[in-house]
Amino acid sequence: MTDTIVETGAARAVDAVKTYGSGETEVKALAGVTVSFPAQQFTAIMGPSGSGKSTLMQCVAGLDRLTSGETFIGETALSGLSKTDLTLLRRDRLGFIFQQYNLIPTLSAKENILLPLTLAGEKPDQVWFDTIVQTVGMANRIENLPSQLSGGQQQRVAVARALVPRPDIVFADEPTGALDSRTGMEILSFMRQAVDDAGQTIVMVTHDPHAASYANNVLFLADGQIIDEMPNPTAERVLDRMKRFEA
Amino acid sequence: MFQLAWRGVRHNTGRYVATLIAIMTGVAFFTATGFLSDRVINALEGDAVRQYGGVDAAVVVDYEADGGQFADDLRIGQDTADAIAALPEVAAVGGDLSGSVAFLAPDGATFADNATGRLWIEDDELNPIDIDDGAAPVAAGEIAVDKGLAGDEDLELGDQVTILTLAGQFDATVVGITSFGNSDAQDSGGTVSIPAPTAFDWLNAGQAEYQDLYIRGTGDQATLVSAVEPLVPPGFRVQPGDEFLQDKQGEVSGFGKILKTGLQGFALLALFVGGFVIYNTFSVIVAQRLRELAVLAAIGATPKQIKRSLRFEGLVIGLIGSALGVAAGFGLAFVLMAVLQAVGVSLPGSGITVSPSVVYQGLFVGTLITFLSVMIPARRAARTEPIEALRQAAVETSPLSRQRVITAGLLVGLGALGMLFGPAPAIGFGALAMFIGVIVAGPIIAVVGSKIFRPLLGRLGLEGRLASDNIARNPQRTATTSNALLIGVFLVTLVTVAGTSVKDFAVAKINELSSADYVIESTGGTIDDGLIADLEAVDGVDAVTPFRREAVSVVGEATLDPTLAGTPSALSTGDFAALSDVADLELDQGSIDDLGPGQVLLISDLAGTDPIGKSVTMTNSQGGTVDLEVVGVLKFSLDSGLVGSFVDTPTFDAFVGETAPTVAFMDIATGAQSDTEDAIDEITALRPDITVTQGNALGRIIGQIFDFLINAVNGLLLMSVIVALIGIVNTLSLSILERRRELGLLRVVGMEDKQVRRMVRVESVLISALGTITGVALGVFTGWALIFGIDRLSEAGIAFSLPGGMLALVLVLGIGLGFLASLIPAQRSTRLEVLDAINAT
């Protein structure tokens, strides 16, 4: 983590526009978003369905391409990268946590956690690996296959997988959406801990005010634009803000 | 529910494509072979009617008499033909006479080496050959050639040609182009029609004789036959026209019918393999639609309705696929014809015969196999509980059941026991039980194979390891896919292994029989001193020993076996000592020194019991007879079979006349056999009457026949292999569809597209490797057990030969084809954008 990244943000979007379809059926998912995600911070993106929050994350994470504008991971502009370059960038510099189906069913929990490193042909930092696995509480189930784990346990493995390679940024898309609230809280605590203790940068898309309250900062999106921002959020304030916007 | 089924078909078109292709391919093979064979059968039968319809009676060689080895040498003399023609019941007589001819190009090379020269029959109704263009050959020096020959060799009306016949070289003019019914020629190597006076000179050493007589009568056939009967020479018989036509039809279409049965058998096997593909596809489709089916069950569809709906889907798909297959079969028939044409095989007849029976059969078997293949998946679908609709987890099948392990183990074990220790029927049932056992064991093999290959493939990287894990994920599906391939590979291996062993055994046995190095025979011509000198001048040729031979038949004689009366045989004379030096001629009884005038060394198959001192009467085709006293018996061998009975020269001269030798044995210096072949061929190429056969050629011919059969059967088994490959493409495509989320995730966390594609390819190669290796192993074992069983039960002592090169080829091909099958699914695996892949439901 260098100082420049701290100043310019771990990831940025500049005039990001994303449209689907054309002519009468054209839908603007992102209508010129400029945003910076500061390093070593936990940022949440909120907004109603169709607001463009997932699209924003996917474009910044190199999973999707913009119609116009530019996104950066650190100082790397993504629009110039080939499909393979994007794959390698994701592998080497990014981590992902999805709502579900996060794991490869034929690989054990341990193999799943090491997947990005295995693909890169790198050896894990054993101490760091043990720390993460201890933190998420999976040390004793590490050899199990995903089908032998509960939903919450699977999500802990997914979090571990995202954190073990020490990526520049972890992108999380509704990481607690499929979990009961107690398990969800645990997952969010791990993520919070990773930011506080290890200086990890996390960007999370969610529609759950309680989940958003774990973030340092909440961005509100509507109709493809950032309409508000809330530092140091609490669940109640986020909920209030959300209620306003739906009215 | 029918509407639901129809919707099911329509909404899942993509998934059904491979099923359709599998049905289509099988049905197409089935109908194409049917169409082609029917064309051949129709053309040949039609030809027979058109060509021989005008024949009211025919005098033909009586093949039904024992032996028949020399029956083709028998001739009907002109006097007999004239006598028959003079009968009041006879309207016209046409004689059939043929012999080998060839053409000599100005540069000295020969062409149309396998052509047949035929006496042109004047009577239009009796002549099976028609003039297409030009005129019939009438005058000496005129010939007509068939249109195939004319086309192949660029012969045109008015062309001057040099024709080689057994009587020498002659100049001739092409005056006509002929055809034979729907086919070009009556003879596979081409037909050259030659008018009457010339034909006797060219084809029959100047003798006016015939091989068959075609007779047109004035009244009914029965009267005609009984009138002709007394005039029929020995070794011949007279047939009413209807019977003759039937024989001709049977002769010509028998080939077509065997062809049809054989080809369609293999096509049915391909369809059977297609059944595996269809079963697999429907199983996957049912698994994927589990939720939809569960919703149906939840809202009140009864299991019966669901089952019926799926079966109806199968029926619709089966009918559509079969109909497409019939259409494709029509096209395929043309393709096959073009391929055959390209390799130089022209089938009789023209166009394709679309027989309704083949169309109906194709539709029926295709639909039936689809319907049957859908039964089990449909029953499984009907068992869907409504609760499944609410379950989230992807469907992973249960681990291997103990029941399956026990069943497979029992079948394989009992099968092996039966084959190794049981009586003859148990070998057959054992092989079947073992085969079924291995098919049942498929999922076990998939799991074990996955474990075995995992460390090896792990070295390829993560994608290799994932690929080997994937084949164990749904062992049942992997097994069905690889089993489809296994069937073809197993049969190919079995045929190759067992066939090669039997071939090697037969060839070795025949080669144990000693014989002359070469046998030279002249049909109609003679082995003259010039030819002998030419041949002896060839480096490596030690001796050429000619002898004189006459086709004879034995006239019934009470002292010998009366059932041998009329048996065609041969009578020869020459230098017995010189002959027995180069050929395998031995006496069972008596001695050559005993042989005097009017005495004979009788060939053993005519001897009956205790013939010494008895008298035997022989007759030749000219009707001459001779009484001979038996003083010795010639032991039967490959060579003595060619010699027949042996008399001294004065006796032969008195009976046959002072003819020249027509046969010779040739002795080659040890080890020089293959070196002399070309030189001998070069000398004899100018003499179309001469046939050179390697003395031990039988072994070689049998070897070639076996090789041809093995290759032909294997070629036909390819049909089932092709269908099995479609199965692999299908299974992989469906698996990819099922795992698109997972593949998406792998790509998100950093697996490159090329790695994903490699993973799919490795999986495909693995599936095909499982099928191929298991198939080869099972085929080798079954082949070995069969040979072992034959030896055990008959003490035949057949050695087991393992055609290693061939098996290696099968392995490489099977696995290589697996790679080929993976290309489309591999491409498809990364076609979806990463984002769509992970968002897919």
Name its key features.
heterodimer, A: 247 residues, alpha/beta, Rossmann fold, six-stranded mixed β-sheet, four-stranded antiparallel β-sheet, 10 helices, 38% helix, 24% strand, globular, disordered N terminus, B: 841 residues, alpha+beta, ten-stranded mixed β-sheet, nine-stranded mixed β-sheet, elongated
Can you put this structure into words, describing what you see?
The complex is a heterodimer of chains A (247) and B (841). Chain A is α/β, with parallel strands linked by helices. Chain A has one domain (40-62, 81-246): Rossmann fold (3-Layer(aba) Sandwich). Chain A is built from 10 helices and 10 strands. Chain A has helices spanning 3-8, 53-60, 83-93, 109-113, 115-120, 126-136, 151-163, 181-198, 209-212, 235-246, and strands spanning 11-20, 27-37, 42-46, 68-73, 76-77, 94-97, 169-173, 202-205, 217-222, 225-231. The radius of gyration of chain A is 18 Å and the shape is globular. Mean pLDDT of chain A is 86; it is low at 1-6. Chain B has 4 domains: 1-52 and 250-395, no CATH class; 75-234, no CATH class; 444-513 and 696-841, no CATH class; 518-695, no CATH class. In chain B, helix 13 (442-458) packs across helix 15. Chain B is 57% helix and 16% strand. Chain B is an alpha+beta fold and 841 residues long. The chains are: A alpha/beta (247), B alpha+beta (841). Chain A binds chain B through residues 58, 63-64, 83-84, 87-88, 90-92, 96, 98, 101-107, 115-116, 118-120, 147, 161, and chain B through 393-394, 396, 462, 466, 469-470, 473, 741-742, 745-753, 755, 833-835, 838.
